[in-house]
Amino acid sequence: MNFKLGKTLLLTTMFMVLSYGQVTSAHASESWERVYPERFDTVEQFFLQQGCQFYQGAGYLYDLDQEHWLTFDEAASHYPELENTLTDVECELSASVEELSQLINIESFKESGLVLLYFDVARDAGGDNRNVFTSGMLENYQNRLDRLSEFEELPKYRIIPSRVGLVPQ
């Protein structure tokens, strides 16, 4: 293969991959209310102080009326179609609506009842999170986000923390 053809093929492939990522990201973000906590470590500390591990790319259900995080079993009993998509944590999370609002940097929730909270992967100031993924991880991440995006029964909040305060492991 000559250099010019190889370069053209490489650029075409890169363009297709980037275009696919933008299309799937746009599709996945249509039905989400996006919120942006200012610091990663603040979100992480919230979980750690309750004896929980903070997982990025994790979905939970929260009852705004009862101020209650649903356990995995409670969430799966309400919405069995989410069972393979929500995160099963082995600890009990607790936060008032006010505490949750402060944590995720939102003035107030627009609704009552159950909401879906998706803690996305932390992003830099330019909005990039792709460099933290291997190709297999990226595919799993995108599949989970797409499945949750298709779920239309509850209001959905996509919580996208800043990388400020993120300590690389």
Itemize the secondary structure elements and their pairings:
Elements: H1 3-29, E1 33-35, H2 40-48, E2 58-63, E3 68-69, H3 72-78, H4 97-104, E4 114-119, H5 135-150, E5 156-159
Parallel strand pairs: 1-5, 4-5
Antiparallel strand pairs: 2-3, 2-4
Helix pairs in contact: 1-5
Keywords:
169 residues; alpha/beta; 2 domains; 5 helices; globular; disordered N terminus
Q: Tell me, what's the shape? A: globular
Tally of alpha and pi helices: 5
Structural class: alpha/beta
How many domains, in number, for the residues? 2
Largest sheet features: 5 strands, mixed
* Oligomeric composition of the shown chains: single chain
User: Strand share of the residues?
Assistant: 5-15%
Q: Stretches where pLDDT falls below 50 for ≥5 residues? A: 2-29
Please give the order of strands in the largest beta sheet: 1-5-4-2-3
Helix content: 25-40%
Q: Would you report the number of β strands? A: 5
Order of helices and strands: HEHEEHHEHE
The radius of gyration computed from the alpha-carbon positions, rounded to a whole number of angstroms, is 18 Å
What distance lies between the first and last C-alpha atoms, to the nearest angstrom?
41 Å
Mean pLDDT, all residues? 80
